[in-house]
Amino acid sequence: MQIRCNINHKEYNLEVEATSRVLDVIRELGITSPKEGCGEGECGACSIFFNGKLVNSCLLLAGQIQNAKILTLEGLYEETKIVRENFETTGAIQCGFCTSGFVLRSYDYVKESGVKDEQSVKDALDGNLCRCTGYQKIVDAVIKSMA
Ligand code: FES
Ligand code: FES
Questions:
Q1: Cα of 78 from ligand 1 centre, angstroms
Q2: Domain 2-75: CATH superfamily, name plus number
Q3: Prediction pTM value
Q4: Which among 78, 96, 86, 104 is positioned nearest to 143, based on CA atoms?
Q5: 31 sits in which H/E element
């Protein structure tokens, strides 16, 4: 099927299978910040904004993004600057595989929430998994981003 959509501020006309995963469609365009972790909606590594809402792109089908506006970390590079810098300076990045998803989740939380107690941040990050950091430095980075 033919779909039209806007990805990272650029218009695309794409020929896709309706049942292709948006994660694959995006990565085949060379936009590689969304990663495949679990492939089952459990880890958040594939996070993207879909019409303003953060979703797991491994669970989104190409047929669902007709006329949609998609943003990945590449398209939000300036907007996420504070969060990204705090991830770097607090040591919240190790292998980096989960980082794009965590940065988008944290950016969404920081911009939407005025609550910066540790438990609220942990709850907000609940859908994202990281094998390396033990999470505390990620939580510290988010709290620092709300200062
Ligand atoms: Fe999509 Fe894990 S790869 S949630
Ligand atoms: Fe390696 Fe999170 S930094 S999975």
A1: 24
A2: Beta-grasp domain (3.10.20.30)
A3: 0.97
A4: 86
A5: none
Report the atom number in ligand 1 closest to the C-alpha of 129. 2
Q: Which of 33, 42, 100, 132 to mutate to test the pocket of ligand 2 (most atoms within 8 A of CB)?
A: 132
* 43-99 pLDDT per residue, tens: 999 999 999 999 999 999 999 999 999 999 999 999 999 999 999 999 999 999 999
Q: What letter does residue 74 receive in the DSSP assignment?
A: G
Measured CA to CA, the distance from residue 98 to residue 105 in angstroms comes to 11
Reference 105, options 123, 85, 132, 78; nearest CA is 123
> For residue 58, which atom of ligand 1 is closest to its CA?
1
SS3 80: coil
Single out the residue of 103, 96, 111 nearest to residue 74, CA to CA.
103
User: 119: which residues sit within 8 A by CB, 6+ positions away?
Assistant: none
Supply the CATH classification number for the domain 81-145. Answer: 1.10.150.120
